[in-house]
Structures are given as structure tokens and as C-alpha cells.
User: Which sequence fits this backbone?
């Protein structure tokens, strides 16, 4: 289109329309976060890889850049609200918007086997909820103005089938005997946030969903897990890439709806 003088407003519109989509993934220097960053970048998305440890985060970014992928590092500890302003400023300065937010950072203070409900400590509950529940809410609230600047914002809360109250109460379900109160309750609460925020944004272009990646070979999942990382990353990535006809306010695993 050389030599074509466009009106300034039309030029700005076309520039914005052709701008690459931008995704921010928390806790993305390893495991599922890293895998989702890789898959999204491979699909043509600019990925902001957020991690609390700069050395580990930068190292992860360099590996992905070596594969020719468009990935940038952002120092972000989700439990440190002082980092939120820096995240907003970084996105505002470099992109002026945010198209996809994947709240991936999470912990399991009591491990996979958990602790009996009657023995679960207040510290375990507070530590787990701080990362798995309070942080995703606070970070999402901070980034929502940038998500509203997207033509089709997507928020993905990385939950777990262990957050399903329905399945936990069913003696015939596959998770019935796998109970860890602090972790399970934090993911159930995160699912509640998904439902409430999706309802609030139902008349906008933003979609909010919860993802169960599966039992995946990660530091948290351990080598006993049956799923490899590429498969585990698919659900979160698919929800981040939903088109306008995709679901809003749901709980999914590999395209299948899970009960709350």
C-alpha cells in the first residue's frame, strides 16, 4: 500500500486491527505455564512470560526465543501487589492492551496426598488461598482495564478437577478419595470467581473460564502423573484462543465440561 495516504484515524484503526494478540501467563518459567507460553507463541501470539524469579524467567524466555518465538519476560510475583503496577505499566507501554490472561501460578501447601480436614492448619489455608485465590482476583482486577481494550479478551483461571464440589461429594467419582482441603477449597473458590466474573462480563467481548489441565507431570503433579506437558497445556491454550462463539463461565478439560 505504498504511496497511499490514509486518514490518521483509519491508519490507527488498521494498525490496531493488525496488531498481534498479547497473552500474559503467570508462573510461566516452568511446567504448565511454560508449556502454554510455548503453545500460544507457536500459534502467533506475543507472550509475556511472568515469573517471580528473574533468573529463571529470563532463562525460560531465552529458550523460547531460541525457537524463534515472540516471548518477553515480566517479573511478577502474584503474591506481591507491588509488582502489579509494574505489570500494568509494562503492558500499557509496550502493547496498550492485553488480550489473554492465564492465571496459572498456584501452589499445594500440603502436597497431593493432603492433610485430613480436621488437621489442616490455618497457615496452610492462608498460604494456599493467598496464591491460588486472592492473587488471581487481585491481579485480574488490576489488568481488567487493559483486557477491556482488547477486541476479544480472554481470562483463563487454571483450576483443577479437585475443585469440583460435585465430584468430591460423589462416592463413585474418580477423585472421591483424593482430598486436600486447602488446595481443593482454593480451586473451588477460584471456580466461584470464574462464575461471578463471567456473569459480570457476559455482555462484553471478554470470556472467563476455568480449566482443568489434567494430572500432568510437573513439580506439583510429580512423575506419577499420566499426562505429559504438551497434552496438559491444551485446555488452557484452547480457552485462551476461543472465538466469539466460545463458552463463557464454564469449567473444562480437553473440550469436555466438568461439574462445579
Assistant:
Amino acid at each position: 500500500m505504498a504511496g497511499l495516504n490514509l486518514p490518521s484515524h483509519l491508519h490507527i484503526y488498521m494498525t490496531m486491527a493488525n496488531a498481534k494478540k498479547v497473552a500474559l501467563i503467570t508462573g510461566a518459567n516452568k511446567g504448565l505455564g511454560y508449556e502454554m507460553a510455548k503453545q500460544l507463541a507457536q500459534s502467533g501470539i506475543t507472550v509475556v512470560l511472568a515469573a517471580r524469579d528473574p533468573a529463571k524467567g529470563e532463562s525460560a524466555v531465552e529458550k523460547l526465543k531460541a525457537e524463534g518465538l515472540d516471548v518477553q519476560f515480566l517479573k511478577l510475583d502474584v503474591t506481591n501487589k507491588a509488582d502489579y503496577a509494574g505489570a500494568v505499566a509494562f503492558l500499557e507501554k509496550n502493547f496498550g492492551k492485553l488480550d489473554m490472561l492465564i492465571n496459572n501460578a498456584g501452589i499445594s501447601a500440603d502436597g497431593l496426598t493432603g492433610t485430613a480436614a480436621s488437621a489442616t492448619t490455618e497457615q496452610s489455608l492462608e498460604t494456599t488461598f493467598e496464591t491460588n485465590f486472592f492473587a488471581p482476583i487481585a491481579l485480574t482486577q488490576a489488568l481488567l482495564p487493559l483486557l477491556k481494550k482488547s477486541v476479544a479478551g480472554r481470562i483463563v483461571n487454571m483450576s483443577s478437577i479437585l475443585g469440583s464440589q460435585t465430584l468430591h461429594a460423589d462416592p463413585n467419582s474418580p477423585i472421591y478419595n483424593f482430598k486436600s482441603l486447602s488446595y481443593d477449597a482454593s480451586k473451588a473458590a477460584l471456580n466461584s470467581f470464574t462464575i461471578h466474573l463471567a456473569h459480570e462480563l457476559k455482555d462484553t467481548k471478554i470470556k472467563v473460564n476455568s480449566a482443568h489441565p489434567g494430572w500432568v507431570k510437573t513439580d506439583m503433579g510429580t512423575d506419577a502423573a499420566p499426562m505429559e506437558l504438551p497434552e496438559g497445556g491444551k485446555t488452557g491454550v484452547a480457552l485462551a484462543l476461543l472465538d466469539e462463539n466460545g463458552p463463557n463461565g464454564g469449567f473444562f478439560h480437553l473440550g469436555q465440561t466438568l461439574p462445579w
In short: The chain has one domain: 19-257. The domain at 19-257 is CATH 3.40.50.720 (Rossmann fold). Confidence is low (pLDDT under 50) at residues 1-8, 10-18. Strands lie at 22-25, 46-51, 71-75, 100-103, 154-158, 207-211, 251-253, 256-257.
